[in-house]
Fold each of these.
Amino acid sequence: MTAVRNFVITFFLSILIFGLIAYGLVQFTTSAFELGSEKNPGGETGGDDMGAASDTEPDSTPKDWIDIKGNSFTALLIGSNYQPDVYSDYDVKDENATNDGFPLEPRQVETPTIILLRVNKETGECLFCPIPAITRITVDGLSCQLKDLYAMKGADALCTKVMAMTGIPVDYYAVVTMSKFASFIDDLGGVTYFVETDMYYVDETIGLEINLRRGSQKLNGENAVKMLRYCGYQDGDASRRKCAVSFLKELFKVALSKIKMENAALAYADYAKYFETNFTIGDLGDNVDLIFSYNKMAIRDYAYPGTTVGTGADAYFSANIPKAIDFFSQYKYKG
């Protein structure tokens, strides 16, 4: 259950931070950044995905993209469940130094959120593809899950694996944790949002209590995080994803309305502290025109194809890699 809750919160943090770096420099209108709706719920065989693809058309006539400075790029948004304020056993060297019995195993840092972002200049669109973190993979001859690869071999290895699963190179990555999410919302002064259902949940082991009522309300950071952690929907992931996308839209409206074009470099410096990334200020400069054109792009969602096998802690995602590569072939670099 902890991993499931962490998925939701890290999902937001990952998109939020990289989005504020790569997108947040754009002075959007309050309706500019609309993610695709879940038009076709249900995956290929297991009902896990939001649908093969969904689209949101641009809010005005597209620009002549060939004249826009910048190049198409692909980024991997990686959400880590590292929570040192909750767990103290990430580093157990001191304990093992005085332990006469079997050595303690440190807590594993996982990446329960992995989202591929494709900004495609040629077609004037931006594609989001969440890749199930429980996808079964093989590393050095051993079977594991995609969420374990970052801790094992780092962000570059994770990018390489995702490239093998999609057929397109990953140019940038951004690794983020959840610890700054609530304080960021508080810095914005909270977010007014319509909570779709009554929410109540208690987990005494980590001191978590969720108690929110249905209706429009201004959420501070703490309550927003609790809402995003809630897992008690009758239909499970479908409603949780719907809540995630809906809240993200409102959060972006608040955050992006406060960022001005002339403050691009300062905004980068302010938010760079939140994540580990290979996206530099130079990359920002090279693609600044394309970045400032995002409000004219069509926003698409694509659910990575495959099916979930098993239930509970034993569940894993079996990826349909050939189908994914066929889809992503339309985004391969030209020239």
Amino acid sequence: MFQYLIKRLIYAVPIALGVSLVCFLMVHIAPGDPLVSVLPPDASLDLQNQLREAYGFDKPLPMQFLLWVWRALGGDLGYSIATGRPVAAEVWRAFGNTFMLAVLAAMFGFVVGGIFGFVAGYWRDTWIDRVASGLSVVGVSVPHYWMGMVLVIVFSVQLNWLPATGAGPGGSADWVWDWEHVKYLIMPALTMSVIPLGIVARSVRALVADILSQEFVDALRAKGLTDAGVLLHVVKNAAPTALAVMGLQLGYLLGGSILIETVFAWPGTGFLLGNAIFQRDLPLLQGTILVLAMFFVSLNLLVDIVQTWLDPRIKRA
């Protein structure tokens, strides 16, 4: 187990470097000058050169990349062009808000999706399977930003039950876990949970149906094992693959929430990315993408380790 852990950590290093390089190059490929948003229209050439030197844009791209990676290793992601504040502080604050929203959405989506998938797989080819599978397909197919707008119209505009936008009465800075703040989380969390709910339900349904068709299940029943005992073995065999799917979906929730956070004006990384894109704020854009990418790599590493702990076949391999 320890050797496998060391091997996975070594494999994660080139992946992290490759992701960093892709993040850096993709941002620089985009057209436009990042200093346009802060330079006055009549800025002199000397002022333009001073700002380019201050942000390191006067150096060749390879040198910019090496300096950026070196500073990022020390926690320095530079300064935002639009606000002048440290990028690390901006990203950390926004990441905390997104993480809170994504975890709540994941808890709901994984639990409900797992139950739907298990029920559909255990009673496959019945009306229960058709209903659960149909709901999961709807969850995957419905555009989540459209669903968010529908929820706002119904529960905020018409019923006036939940707030439409924001992260609390005083913003995310004074967040506390009480009803006045939690109700701001309900609609965006439900909207974010729809797609992972459907994907987890479909994946678990296929896993359970495949496991129940294997010979060892018939052998367990022939030995007189109860239905509860058979279900326990099915869960153990389905857990590693289901865990991998859930880990990927949690990563997607953290990195793909830009539309939902824009609809609900939730001050997370998706909302921050949208602002950075429109303002052409390269340091903020690079820092946000890098943090999300590194979290995704770390999450995949954690899922691999937990899978190894759960599945003895991976240990033997």
Amino acid sequence: MSIMDVKFVQGFIRMCNDGWEQGWHERNGGNLSYRMKEEEVEEVKEYLSLDG
């Protein structure tokens, strides 16, 4: 399984694309944030690294 297959990641990708399609985001204009729930962190912790 890839991190791209995780449900909340797919939702975030869709939100980003929807914003672009509706003209809410200018090109290369910044960042979007998402506050992960504890259970979502558990889902993807194998992909996260504490190393800088």
Amino acid sequence: MVGYRLFAETEADRIGEIRGSVRNLPDGSTVEVIAEGRRVLLEEFLEELKIGPAHALVRGVEIEWGVAAGEFDGFATIY
């Protein structure tokens, strides 16, 4: 997806208090986002991720909620 990783980073920074990572998966068309934070902020972040950046087509979003591991200091792209 065109610009999706940068979009996810920008939205996490805009919302604030979102920690985690975003990366492309090996299939070349799937982006994985792992995020931790307060539920209300994560839900806002998720709504933005469902829309995505301009010129990108978000075909679907799979959501898996779990217990935060506390392993992230900020939000970053993994290359």
